[in-house]
Design a protein that fits this description.
2 helices, about 15% strand
Length: about 40
């Protein structure tokens, strides 16, 4: 949060629910994050 992160990238299933408490970022798998990055390409 201090670094202005937009995503929490992890394979750890225990962290999947962190987004319920911290709505400032999305919790995604590494593959999901790569898909997000592809959507943001110009």
């Amino acid at each position: 949060m201090n670094g202005d992160a937009t995503h929490l990238v992890t394979y750890d299933s225990h962290l999947a629910d962190v987004g319920l408490f911290y709505t400032d970022f999305d919790t995604v798998s590494p593959t999901g994050f790569l898909l997000v990055l592809r959507r943001e390409e110009p």
